Amino acid sequence: MQIKRLQSPLLPESKNLLAICFLCLTAFNGLILLLTLFTAFKVNKIAERKTTFAQLVNGQTIYISEQERNWRYPAVIQKVVSDWTTLTFNWDNKLVITEETDPGIQVGKKRIPTNTWFASLLLESKFAQASLPKIAELVPTSVFTGQLRSTTIISYLSEPRAIRLGEWEIDMIATRVLVDRSTGRDERIPFNRTFTVQAVEIPRSPLGKDASLIEQKIYEMRSSGLQITKMVDFNPQQRR
Prior knowledge:
Blueprint: H1 13-48, E1 52-55, E2 61-64, H2 74-89, E3 105-107, E4 110-112, H3 114-119, H4 125-138, H5 142-145, E5 148-157, E6 161-164, E7 167-180, E8 186-199, H6 213-221, E9 226-233
Antiparallel strand pairs: 1-2, 3-4, 5-7, 6-7, 7-8, 8-9
């Protein structure tokens, strides 16, 4: 008589199903753990970002924490270079706000227009100290009598080129126009430069609207969170 040997499964069918469910649950929990670790990593990266300001094209700023602290709009970088150039070389014997006669600011034995001094706030501190005496040498005394007027025409401003984090180069082609009001003659002087611009902390006035007009103007000049650190002759051959 042949006896057939019955082979039973290692585990009953119900236990096989339980094992499969256990493995699926373990895999699912592992996936959840990976997603949780990834989310925590991203949240920590965002939390490390310092609260900074959103930059508007007109130079105004608002609090935001979505961008890196050294990020700046290209248009704001261009505006800083444009503002420095026009304020520095637009000479008249009148104060812009009050239309009163501009007495100027003493720099050594020379004087510079008040707007030129305000423009120096856009320069890095040591660079400003070195530049102001040289600018003062360019300002004739006839500016303060109203005989000579100067203006600046900017023909070209390049897109800012990032050279490192929070630092850019920008090219400018401009012409300074000096007009002698007594004779009607004018002189045109090319002013083509490459500027290096650096992101800095944006200062906030502790007095706000209660600050003096001069203090408000100083903080306004620095509200872009940028300063010019270097200026060299523009050489288009180097850009090719």
